[in-house]
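Cross-posted from the bioinformatics board.
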Amino acid sequence: EVQLLESGGGLVQPGGSQRLSCAASGLTLSSCAMSWVRQAPGRGLEWVSAITGGGGNTYYADSVKGRFAISRDNSRNTLYLQMNSLRGEDTAVYYCAKHLRTGLVDAFDIWGQGTMVTVSS
Amino acid sequence: EVVLTQSPATLSLSPGERATLSCRASQSLSSYLAWYQQKPGQAPRLLIYDASNRATGIPARFSGSGSGTDFTLTISSLEPEDFAVYYCQQRSNWPLTFGGGTKVEIK
């Protein structure tokens, strides 16, 4: 069974940092483009960042550019999101999601269960 | 940034009825639009990609249509498990964007 499992969420103070992980099973991440998508409490979905299978190309939403960094360790079959300079508006459930095909601009066919990040003092 | 406007915000229907959800884009997307279903406490599930292609395992009562700026998700006969929030998402331009969602609730 194909699964994505996020971890690393929690309570963090404004201005702090947090690293999220997304471990894959049943699929090889090196052949997959991947994204992080977030959902603030009671709100809709917001795409955050994407990365190619090889990790050579990355894209970010303007709201996180310069503060967040997406990366991957294909040897560990794991995707990461390093979040710095966190703000209250970053409070959300963060999902990792696999792109349907190999391209970066695509739909998302497999999602993790999400990990909650709360930014508050 | 492509803005996706979904309507109506809420759709109140009974099981067995037909549901028609709309997604309008601020610029042409060709056919690069997807639909997702999300239930409370769960991750989104891909239903339709590239406007009209059902994802793996999606029942035939779900269908998508449209191109350019106007798209429709139709659920031909609502089952109890179909009451949820539905989102559209475009892959025509960066950044990837989602619509605000349509909640399909039991009447």
